[in-house]
Each structure stands twice: as C-alpha cells, then as structure tokens.
Design goal:
256 residues; mainly alpha; 9 helices
Length: 256
C-alpha cells in the first residue's frame, strides 16, 4: 500500500514556507536596504538577461500564429477571429507559460544551486548565528525578484509576439498599423489581461519558492547541490503545467 504521509507532509511544509515568505515580505519592505542588492541582481538576471531569448521566441510565436492561422480562417471567411486567436494564444496562454519555462531554465537552477552551496558552506548557519533571518534575507528578495521579472517578461512577450504577427501581416497583406492594433484592442478584454497577470504571479511564486526550498533541503554533501537544481527544475515544470491547466479551466468557468 502506498503511503501518502510523505507527500502530504511535504505539501504542508511547502505551504508553510510560502506563508512564512509572504510574512517576510512585510519585514523586507521595512528593512529594504539590507537585501536590496539581492533583489536588484535577481531582477537583472531573471528579467534583463532573458530579454534576448524572450524577444526571439515571442516574435517567432507571433509570426507562426499568423502564418498558420490566416489561411484556415480565410477559407472559413472568419478573418476577424485572427485577433481573438492572437490574444488567446499569445497574451493569455503561451505568454505566461513560455516565459515561466524560460525563467525555470535560467533562474530555478541558479537559485537552488546557489542556496544549496550556501548551506553546504555553512553560510546560512552564519546568518542565523548573527541574528539574520535566512528566509527574509535569502528567500524573500528572490521571491519578489522572480515574480516581478516574470510579470514584466510576460508583458514583453505579449508586445513582441503581437508585433511579430503584425510584421507577417504587413508583409503579406499590407495591413495598416492602426487597423491591425485597433482590432487587437477591440478584441482584448480585461479578463484576458487579468488572467495573464494571475498566471505570471502564480508561476513566479511557484518557481522562486520551489527553488529556495530545494536549496535549503540539502544537508552536507556537495553532490547534493546539482541534485537540488535538477529537482527545482523538474518540480517547477510539473507544478506550473498543473496550475496552468487549473487556471485556464477556472477562466472558462468563472470569467467567460
């Protein structure tokens, strides 16, 4: 018989760690100067350094949606549905998900291995010995940095994805810019923006908290450090896919 005690215990531990991190956000705001450098560096690495791959991916996705979708919609005489399709695919669905995958590949491994190395080298014990809360000093700025970065990466992905689609539309059909973006704004609803934002916040919390927990979970052996990074990536991928499905289903049940 399979025991559920371990997974249930881990779930409650993760929820407790998340609650403790949220509580630490308030104290972090009060003592911002002590950990501000960590927050700035996290945003620099997670957001700024990821702009290149995000630009390439968003332009490619936007162009692909237009190239694939327009011929089929034209055969059905439903060309206006192209704008709805772009918003659904780029802004509401793929934008949050693909930017989360980019952040997982880059930041989840980095955060987990960095904190795991600090645990192995007893740096975390040193923080505790001088009265510094490691959650407030290490977990909170990374949680804020990853979540903020993911929100802006998602916005950036949407802008360049829609721009990539316009480049293709302009090249093949000579569609005026004001006509294209005017139709996009007409088909863009507040619930689409809201769902995209909710997904970014949820995915940012999952990635950052999961990576920090994996980093803190190591004990003494240096061989545990790369394992922590791999576990952070695999668990983040799995949980984000599940949460993405649940949020999409919730969108169609509640907001549509």
């Amino acid at each position: 018989m399979i025991s559920l005690a371990g997974p249930v215990k881990n779930m409650f531990y993760n929820l407790g760690f998340f609650a403790r991190t949220l509580k630490g956000v308030v104290n972090f705001a009060r003592s911002y100067k002590t950990s501000s450098k960590i927050l700035v560096m996290q945003i620099l690495f997670t957001f700024v350094h990821a702009l290149g791959i995000t630009t390439l991916l968003s332009l490619a996705i936007g162009a692909a949606v237009n190239i694939i979708g327009v011929p089929y919609l034209t055969m059905l005489n439903q060309q206006q549905l192209m704008y709805t399709l772009l918003i659904v695919i780029i802004t509401r669905e793929l934008g949050p998900l693909l930017t989360a995958f980019i952040v997982i590949a880059r930041s989840a491994t980095a955060i987990a291995t960095e904190i795991a190395g600090m645990v192995i080298s007893h740096e975390v014990e040193a923080y505790i010995s001088v009265g510094v809360d490691p959650i407030e000093h290490l977990a909170v700025p990374r949680f804020l940095g990853v979540t903020i970065s993911l929100i802006f990466l998602n916005l950036y992905f949407s802008i360049f994805g829609l721009a990539g689609s316009y480049i293709i539309a302009r090249f093949f059909n000579s569609i005026p810019m004001d006509f294209y973006f005017g139709n996009l704004l007409q088909h863009l609803h507040i619930q689409d923006i809201l769902m995209s934002l909710i997904k970014s916040i949820a995915f940012g919390a999952i990635i950052s908290i999961g990576a920090v927990i994996q980093g803190f979970s190591v004990e003494r052996a240096s061989t545990e450090v790369p394992v922590a990074g791999l576990n952070a990536v695999s668990s983040s991928f799995a949980l984000i896919i599940v949460v993405n499905v649940l949020l999409s289903v919730l969108y169609y049940i509640v907001l549509v």
